[in-house]
């Protein structure tokens, strides 16, 4: 079920009414409702994959409780490894099996040994990368004794499958989200209205910015040999805003939806395109994943401590794993590698925490230096997105090569009537709104005229939204 | 909760009002003769001062091929070309009905070809009819085949959202920005390209049966004392067999193999401007008395 579909527009009010009007006096009832709703939401794509979530939930619930009972270190380790093995194993099988088989075959062929690949026709279950990381965080935190394991299976199952963030995050930590299933929520109108506004803001980013950009980014990337260099630059620009609007829009809808039920989800995007360097960008982009890797991979590896060699190794591991998490394709690995290369000089010169505050915190406009820093960071990020978007690494290199030829005509896509000339002004509108509300979690938060602001946003969605070609959220495929 | 429910319903109500206003505005602009962006809206703009001698209907294979100005110059017969790209039999029937609501005409010409058997809606050609969805005969035809027709008709602005790439803001703004050349050329629009590669194109054989939309057009013509002619425009080197058309359509003329010069084609089924001029001459010779 897509957030931007009629199905969801019917589904959400039904769950909302059930949650606040039917089961308002029973926490258990509310959790059961959320669990059933989440399974319905997920099963809407393919009910068969529900078995995977249920299996993952059962395994981690059991392991969590067993970890509480035993103090034996080796037994505890075995339990932890079991959880990691099961969760990463499922992920590995569904997401990476064919990739590894294909690459082993290619490697053997390179050395002259011809083997017949035994690839499988595997469908990737939606959201598997998200919920496996979420359940893993539970087991690891219980193992580390940072979290008491729950004995309430319904609450745990609802935590694993909570529908607003089930298929594309934010990837919640058990320490933050699980306790929220154990306490009774009182309805708070202010929060709910805020949630509604954040949903609208997310829809605007998805339907107006991302889906419009998608049509032209797709066309340019799919036919790049036919276009001039400036059009390819425009294609990369469109994709940068497609992926931002798509993913941050999804996160806003997820956070807003959760807020309607009294839940607080972590912020996943904090205006990443206003970053002054790549380190700041990674503190603002897909925060729930970056911090997950930081806490469960980077810090256990030693983080920024130890020798320079270890630091460099850790940076590359974290970015390459992060790239690989996005998909079984070398393009994502190169994208991760490129970001590691961007990040490394900043870290080695100890400048990775220079920009921890929001840009131009005490002024209306950025300084020239800040403007140039933001422009440069956006540009290098955009170059990396070319790898992220391309079908394969060769295409990405050819795309970039052609982009560097400075051929004419100048941005022919912008000159054709059929192509949306309104997209660029809409992107400028998005950036302007975000700039002037950059200290808020989302632009409509705390606005004095909530109805008017929401209405204007809805008008923009109705008039400029892309509805004829409903685009799935990009991160569903991860 | 009261505060939230009140906020939600206020927003819902205002949104519905906005949607109604948008629907009204878009429909008004698209169906207004002043801003015509399609031949469907242009029909209302055609002057009734000069009586029409003929009208041409069909797809791009008529829109790109028949030049009414050339016919006017050579025969003094005043007519319009109401064919438009992708239109098939159902859309042609709608256009005939739409046209006869506003105008009188002595004879009509309908281009038929490889899509003769098609009776279903064409998803592209139906788009310009969306602003007219609340007209009974348009709705009745669409509702027979489109399960969403009811929602498109009654949910305000839904039809414009669903067809945003063809009827959205961009297209609407073009009604004000872009100069309209349909009227100037009396409905003819030419293409400039030249076909380069020689080949023989295969066309699937037609099924020998009547087409209900074309039968209905014949009935309409009979009722209004209009002479109806069917023809097939030129193809470049095809194996198209027109026997089914000859058998099922009255006053049928086959021009499918009438032009063989590759330089007159843009592609195997469309003539370029030079080809259109040559074909219009052929058309004049067949159907019009030279009055000049």
How would you describe what is shown here?
The complex is a heterodimer of chains A (478) and B (292). With 478 residues, chain A is mostly helical. In chain A, 66% of the residues lie in helices and 0% in strands. Chain A is built from 18 helices and no strands. In chain A, helix 3 packs antiparallel against helix 4. By secondary structure, chain B is α/β, with parallel strands linked by helices. Chain B has a single domain, classed as Rossmann fold (3-Layer(aba) Sandwich). In chain B, strands 2-1-3-4-5 form a five-stranded parallel β-sheet, sandwiched between helices. In chain B, strand 4, helix 12 and strand 5 form a beta-alpha-beta unit. Chain B is elongated, with a radius of gyration of 21 Å. The model of chain B has no long low-confidence stretch (mean pLDDT 89). Chains A and B meet through helix 8 and helix 18 of A and helix 1, helix 9 and helix 10 of B.
Distance from first to last alpha carbon of chain B: 81 Å
Radius of gyration from the alpha-carbon trace of chain B, in angstroms: 21 Å
Main beta-sheet strand count, sense and barrel state of chain B: 5 strands, parallel
Give the low-confidence spans of chain A.
none
**Which stretches of chain B are low in confidence, meaning pLDDT under 50 for 5 or more residues running?**
none
Largest interface: A-B, 26 and 25 residues
Q: Write the element-wise H/E pattern of chain A from the N-terminal end onward.
A: HHHHHHHHHHHHHHHHHH
Total E-strand runs of chain A = 0
Number of domains of chain B: 1
């Amino acid at each position: 079920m897509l957030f931007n579909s009629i199905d969801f527009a019917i589904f959400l009010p039904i769950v909302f009414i059930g949650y606040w009007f039917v089961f308002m006096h029973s926490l258990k009832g509310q959790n059961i409702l959320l669990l059933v709703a989440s399974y319905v939401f997920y099963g809407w794509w393919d009910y068969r994959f529900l078995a995977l979530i249920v299996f993952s939930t059962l395994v981690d619930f059991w392991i969590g409780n067993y970890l509480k009972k035993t103090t034996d270190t080796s037994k505890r380790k075995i339990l932890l490894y079991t959880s990691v093995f099961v969760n990463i194993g499922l992920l590995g099988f569904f997401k990476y099996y064919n990739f590894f088989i294909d690459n082993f075959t290619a490697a053997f062929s390179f050395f002259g040994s011809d083997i017949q690949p035994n690839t499988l026709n595997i469908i990737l279950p939606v959201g598997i990368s998200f919920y496996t990381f979420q359940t893993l965080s539970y087991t690891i935190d219980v193992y580390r004794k940072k979290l008491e394991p729950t004995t309430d299976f319904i609450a745990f199952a609802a935590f694993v499958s909570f529908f607003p963030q089930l298929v594309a995050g934010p990837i919640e930590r058990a320490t933050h989200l699980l306790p929220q299933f154990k306490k009774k929520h009182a309805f708070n109108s202010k929060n709910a209205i805020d949630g509604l506004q954040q949903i609208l803001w997310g829809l605007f980013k998805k339907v107006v910015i991302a889906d419009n950009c998608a049509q032209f980014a797709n066309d340019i990337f799919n036919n790049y040999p036919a276009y001039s260099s400036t059009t390819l630059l425009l294609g990369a620009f469109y994709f940068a805003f497609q992926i931002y609007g798509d993913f941050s829009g999804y996160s806003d809808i997820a956070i807003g939806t959760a807020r309607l039920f009294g839940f607080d989800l972590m912020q996943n995007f904090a205006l990443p395109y206003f970053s002054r360097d790549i380190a700041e960008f990674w503190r603002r982009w897909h925060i729930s994943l970056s911090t997950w890797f930081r806490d469960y991979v980077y810090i256990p590896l030693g983080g920024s401590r130890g020798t320079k060699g270890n630091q460099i190794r850790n940076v590359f591991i974290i970015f390459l794993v992060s790239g690989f998490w996005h998909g079984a394709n070398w393009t994502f690995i190169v994208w991760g590698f490129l970001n590691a290369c961007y990040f490394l000089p900043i870290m080695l010169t100890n400048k990775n925490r220079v920009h921890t505050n929001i840009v131009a915190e005490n002024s209306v406009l950025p300084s020239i230096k800040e403007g140039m820093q933001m422009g440069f960071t956006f540009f290098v990020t955009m170059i990396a997105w070319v790898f992220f978007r391309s079908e394969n690494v060769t295409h990405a290199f050819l795309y970039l090569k052609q982009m560097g030829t400075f051929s004419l005509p100048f941005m022919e896509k912008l000159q054709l009537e059929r192509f949306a000339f309104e997209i660029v002004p809409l992107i400028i509108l998005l950036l302007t709104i975000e700039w002037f509300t950059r200290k808020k979690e989302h632009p409509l938060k705390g606005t004095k005229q909530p109805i008017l602001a929401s209405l204007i946003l809805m008008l923009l969605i109705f008039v400029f939204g892309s509805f004829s070609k409903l685009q799935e959220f990009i991160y569903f495929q991860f | 909760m009261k505060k939230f429910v009140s906020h939600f319903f206020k927003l819902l109500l205002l949104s519905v009002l906005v949607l109604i206003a948008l629907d009204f505005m878009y429909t008004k602009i698209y169906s207004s003769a002043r801003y015509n962006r399609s031949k469907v809206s242009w029909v209302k703009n055609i002057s009734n001062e000069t009586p029409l001698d003929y009208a041409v209907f069909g797809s791009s294979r008529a829109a790109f091929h028949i030049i009414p100005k050339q016919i006017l110059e050579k025969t003094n017969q005043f007519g319009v070309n109401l064919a438009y790209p992708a239109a098939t039999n159902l859309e042609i029937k709608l256009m005939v009905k739409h046209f006869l609501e506003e105008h009188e005409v002595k004879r009509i010409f309908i281009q038929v070809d490889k899509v003769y058997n098609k009776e279903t809606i064409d998803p592209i050609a139906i788009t310009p009819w969306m602003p007219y969805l609340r007209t009974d005969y348009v709705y009745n035809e669409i509702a027979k085949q489109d399960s969403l027709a009811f929602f498109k008709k009654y949910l305000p602005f839904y039809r414009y959202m669903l067809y945003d790439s063809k009827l959205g803001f961009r297209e609407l703004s073009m009604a004000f920005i872009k100069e309209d050349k349909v009227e100037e050329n009396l409905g003819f629009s030419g293409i400039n390209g030249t076909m380069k590669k020689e080949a023989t194109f295969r066309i699937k054989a037609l099924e020998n049966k009547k087409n209900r939309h074309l039968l209905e057009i014949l009935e309409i013509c009979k009722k209004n004392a209009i002479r109806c002619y069917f023809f097939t425009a030129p193809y470049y080197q095809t194996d198209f067999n027109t026997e089914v058309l000859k058998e099922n359509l009255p006053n049928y003329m086959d021009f499918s193999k009438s032009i063989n010069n590759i330089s007159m084609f843009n592609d195997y089924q469309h003539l370029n401007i030079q080809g259109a001029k040559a074909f219009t001459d052929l058309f004049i010779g067949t159907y019009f008395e030279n009055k000049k």
